[in-house]
């Protein structure tokens, strides 16, 4: 595949999980966050010689493919100039909390990935790695052709960009299921059957949203086939936004 370096903007659990899987799969990784390269000494040391720290703009420039793993509320701080012409993986999800609501998302006028694409007008946004937790990402990878290989959905408006992301997912140890355009990406967002639960099974009863997130972060991974992804994607649209309350 053409991707040998993955740029990572945002070093929360999602960004670091993707970086760990990429390094283990033989790719180089350039890590960045809003606090500066000096704050990434520990993660870089843990990831090893294939990783280095940089600014977000430098990570965007260095990556053959870039994952923008920042909170959706911070998407307008992504470096547009350096991401122009790049394929950008969007793992962001809309979560409602005090002080952050987006009427265009609440009304289903846009999906969150269409909002990101609007900001990154000269990049090619592909929604992926948003509905599987970092722990499951690091547990469920399998070689191509394995009978229990897990699939993950992706959505995007550019066919070549989607193929590029599918090739990356294959290297990381996953099959890809194309759900359509960015306007279709709601099919795997929060409040749908494809969000999180297929990869972890049934949670304990009575969890609050915050407790649910904590449970998912620690739950053992459950393999999910491409056929199952396609089945679960055939659903109706629910309310926008995972509600953190």
From TrEMBL:
Every copy of the Pyrroline-5-carboxylate reductase catalytic N-terminal domain together lies at 6-94
Q: Which organism is it from?
A: Nocardiopsis tropica
The record's annotation in Pfam families points to: F420_oxidored
- InterPro entries for this protein: NAD(P)-bd_dom_sf (IPR036291), P5C_Rdtase_cat_N (IPR028939), STEAP_metalloreductase (IPR051267)
What name does the UniProt record give this protein?
NAD(P)-binding domain-containing protein
Q: Which UniProt keywords apply?
A: Oxidoreductase
Keyword ATP-binding (UniProt): no
Q: Which domain of life is it from?
A: Bacteria
UniProt KW Coiled coil keyword: no
């Amino acid at each position: 595949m053409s991707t040998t370096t993955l740029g990572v903007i945002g070093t929360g659990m999602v960004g670091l999980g993707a970086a760990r899987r990429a390094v283990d799969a033989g790719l180089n990784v350039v890590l960045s966050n809003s606090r500066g390269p000096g704050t990434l000494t520990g993660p870089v040391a843990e990831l090893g010689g294939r990783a280095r720290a940089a600014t977000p703009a430098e990570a965007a420039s260095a990556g053959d493919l870039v994952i923008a793993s920042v909170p959706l509320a911070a998407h307008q701080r992504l470096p547009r100039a350096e991401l122009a012409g790049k394929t950008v993986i969007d793992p962001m999800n809309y979560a409602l909390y005090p002080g952050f609501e987006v009427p265009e998302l609440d009304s289903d006028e846009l999906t969150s990935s269409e909002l990101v694409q609007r900001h990154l007008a000269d990049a090619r946004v592909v929604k992926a790695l948003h509905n599987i937790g970092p722990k499951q990402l690091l547990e469920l990878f399998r070689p191509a052709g394995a009978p229990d290989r897990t699939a993950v959905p992706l959505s995007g408006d550019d066919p070549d960009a989607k193929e590029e992301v599918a090739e990356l997912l294959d290297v990381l140890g996953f099959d890809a299921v194309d759900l359509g355009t960015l306007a279709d990406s709601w099919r795997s967002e929060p409040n749908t059957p494809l969000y999180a639960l297929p990869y972890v099974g049934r949670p304990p009863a009575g969890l609050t949203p915050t407790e649910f997130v904590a449970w998912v972060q620690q739950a053992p991974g459950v393999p999910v086939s491409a056929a199952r992804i396609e089945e679960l994607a055939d659903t109706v649209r629910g309310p926008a936004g995972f509600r953190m309350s």
